Amino acid sequence: MSRARGHVASGLALLGALGLGAGALGCAAPLVNLHEGPREYVATDYDEVRKTWTREDSLFVFSELESALTVSATFESWDFRWAYAMRYAQDYRLTIPQRQRLLRKMLGETRATHEFFVALYGGNPRHNDLTKPDSAWIVRLIDESGNETAPSEVVLLRKPNELERRYYPYNTVWRLAFRIRFPHARPDGRPTISADAGWFGLRFAGPKGNMDLTWELEPAEVEVASAAPAPSADTAPAPADPPASSPEPAAAPPAPAPAGGTDADAIYP
Predict the structure, then answer these.
(1) I need a surface site. Which of 30, 38, 199, 201 has the fewest CB within 10 A?
(2) What is the dihedral of CA 145, 147, 152, 154, to 10 degrees?
(3) pLDDT per residue over 19-45, tens digit each?
């Protein structure tokens, strides 16, 4: 009996080291889609939407009995940004025009780059800075069609603010946080996420191994937002106006800007 318990304990420990605990084995990551268009999110939907667009995994090196790298990443898609904007507008009590400008700005950015919020830890922290030329890791955008694309920009968030801690709760003080952006199209004009791909993801690779975080697309997902002009102020979707019983103040103060700047044009970190 004790031996059986020992085997079970050892097995659970191994699964934990692999990042394959009971929860990971029992539920698959939700399918996603890259479709544009209006959403009906409210502020309280944000946490669930964030979970839909977030992936996490760990790379375990058996020869060294070490968890070499653990990564959590949120793909900031059109869908995610709509929910983010609703949560932000509620938290900072934005006026209707401020909320509309924020939403237009955030949605327009999805047509310029594929952006991920990434927080990671593992091994020697000095070797995990993806902005350094001697980093132990590189990161690439990949898809089912075989595309592999280097980032156009990697930004280290040296001192994540309160918003970046609360909106991405896996971003603890023990991790390094980054914003990683990839181009929508390759130099030859082909999209970096193929319209025929059934999934896309991030690949982290280095001397200690490699691992992929993947987002599987819903069946019949046959179109990825191409590199199109950002929506204009007249045509971009915007949240519906509140009922007449909640009129907008005649002269509202500019919205707070956690990452520097003023008003909604600089409100998104």
Answers:
(1) 38
(2) 80
(3) 443 334 446 899 999 999 999 999 999
Q: Could you tell me the pTM of the whole model?
A: 0.75
Query: Taking the CB of residue 174, how many other CB atoms lie within 10 A of it?
Result: 9
Give pLDDT tens digits for 115-132. Answer: 999 999 998 888 999 999
**DSSP code, position 162:** H
Q: Give the span between the Cα atoms of 53 and 20, in whole angstroms.
A: 19
Amino acid at 173: V
Q: How many CB atoms lie within 10 A of CB 178?
A: 23
Burial of 62 (0-12, 13-18, 19+ CB in 10 A): exposed
Distance, C-alpha 11 to centroid of its chain: 32
**Three-point CA angle 220, 222, 226, nearest 5°:** 150
